[in-house]
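Re: Re: token formats

Sure, here are both.
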Amino acid sequence: MFNKILIANRGEIALRVIRAAREMGIASVAVHSTADADAMHVRMADESVCIGPPSSTQSYLSFPAIISACEITGAEAIHPGYGFLSENAQFVQIVEDHDLTFIGPTAEHIRVMGDKITAKDTMKALGVPCVPGSDGGVDTLEDAKKLGEEMGYPVIIKATAGGGGRGMKVAQTAADMESAFMTARAEGKAAFGNDEVYIEKYLTTPRHIEIQVFGDGKGRAVHLGERDCSLQRRHQKVFEEAPGPAISAEERAKIGKVCADAVAKINYIGAGTIEFLYEKGEFFFIEMNTRLQVEHPVTEAIFGVDLVREQIRVASGMEMTFQQEDLEINGHSIEVRLNAEKLPNFSPSPGRITQYHAPGGLGVRMDSALYDGYSIPPYYDSLIGKLIVHGRDRPEALARLHRALGELIIDGVDTTVPLFNELLAEQDIHTGNYNIHWLEHWLESHMA
């Protein structure tokens, strides 16, 4: 087991890793930019190292700065959290080249799954169901139009190196293809330095279902059920729950086994999430995230496991503490992502927190790095906290979420808390009758 690990991240996820390490008796090192000198993760870690100015490219994304921090402090391993360098294969290779351990998948697995076309081909070969689409990249508009006619509209054009909703455009008809194709390529080039795109059949009313998998790197893997992340704005998740309200036990067991078997075959190590579109009883693979997900707490709640602890254990060469037969769902859990944003436009709202009170009580978890007097810097993602609730069933979880939101106090900045209060008044939320387009349509009519 490691004696000391460095967390190459900030905010609530850095705190999450620090807490797991402390319970395991492992010392933690926080890194921070000058803008985060007073951040909670810096205060809570056993040691801290300033790695650069506010710009993430000069601090949290700086390979030399993070490796140097490990050398200075004697940290043996790096936990990347999510975002930043968590899925950067080049960084992982550099970590390994410096005789350090990356707490996550191998560089090769990150590289394969980071390219959408290669990932789809790999998963198809492993028996994972995929969305009908092009075989590889589509180079010309003429080829794109031909594929659109063959598959039938609507279709979606996606940047090969895309993510976070960037480089994705829908062509509802043949007349839309030129604009969608050129825009997707341009966005891919601007955001990822790669203008290659591929085309898939566009499902009209799917849900977004993701399967949590975990491997030991030695050919053994399990699944920890699914999460429904269908409530999204501009392809960004805002409300996640487990188990999914539309998935049967039989469907869960079947797709879960397919996913666990797939990652076992490639000797995958650590936490990963295989994401699907789900429509009319069928699952269609869209991508694999080779890291811990923002929404991992809902899975932890219903299975009673600590995924970060397991990540650290297997990275150090130890066995997983559970097998598939040990994993039984207990109740229902929901997470809402709280952002420092001003409604209705969701514009960033950084600033000083004048008062903060986290909700508590049975089945309530608040993952946040906020505190009274903390100044949210304007340089990073607007996520300031995650409110997670757990109940015996879905109605109890929804009631607990409503109660917890009423207790939460975040003064000094605008937040998205009012959004969730309004959503909880909607019948579709209580019945679970929604898909990936539901929230966008709701926002158009309620927050115009």
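Second one below.
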Amino acid sequence: MNLLDQLKQYTQVVADTGDFESMKQYKPVDATTNPSLIYAAAQKEAYAHVVERAISFGKQSGGTDVEQLSNTMDMLAVAFGMEILKIVPRRVSTEVDARLSYDIEGTTRKARKLISLYEENGISREKILIKVAATWEGVNAARELEMEGIHCNLTLLFSMAQAIACAEANVQLISPFVGRIYDWHRKERGVDHIPGSEDPGVLSVINIYHYYKRFGYRTEVMGASFRNTEEIIELAGCDLLTISPVLLGELEKSDAQMKKKLDENESKRMELEKITLDEKGFRWMHNEDPMAVEKLSDGIRRFTNDLIRLEKFVGGKMN
């Protein structure tokens, strides 16, 4: 078996792409999207009908130009999600506007709207993960949504404080960003590469995985944002890994041997301290990790810039 087939024995593989053909090729169980992936897909003629459907919906919704654009953007995310669900057997993650990352009420309102659009189109909420930045506000919005049966994927996760808060909020899934942690430490150390077994992003996911399994949290751990296959190999056994088509292709081409690195039974035997965080404790613990502070704010800015770029593209087609 190639490395990808071996990985699928231990871990559920998710496609980190908006490209349908890649999903058909690599057969992931889930898929995750974001505005930059949707923007790239929306440029392609093959997906023009998806964009046109969203624009038609937005214009028919009435209201001001701003309201029509907002409705179009929501429908565009849902329309791409619906197309993806024709390919993947389980779930798709759909992102809430990153500009709402510090707004509990705004996040819950937007999430409910996205879920209602899916349900109006015959898609069960069980097939959707609402993607929210793992700020204190995002975690608490997700806590509220989970109680309504709206499952969440907490993204831009860089610190143990974020991971603990998400588990305590009973969120469905977290996405620790392995590659962005790796980038920060590589720059900080002034090196070109950090081996997978020493990679701080990999070690972060390993620590979170063991903590969750040791204390019996239901929250799934999905490593994300990989820079190389070394990182992926070191996390074989993690609940899920979301992987780009380029790295999926590299795994598929390799016939090297892979071992399961993460084991729930091993986690349960570990002596770990359980930590409970209120808002003050969360903010202090997160603040103690300069990498996490920098990468969370940077990630929110990047997601916002990607969304604005997509809005301009769609807005230009609406005029």
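The longest strand covers residues 128-133. The beta strands are 12-16, 30-32, 92-95, 128-133, 152-157, 173-176, 220-223, 240-243.
- S.
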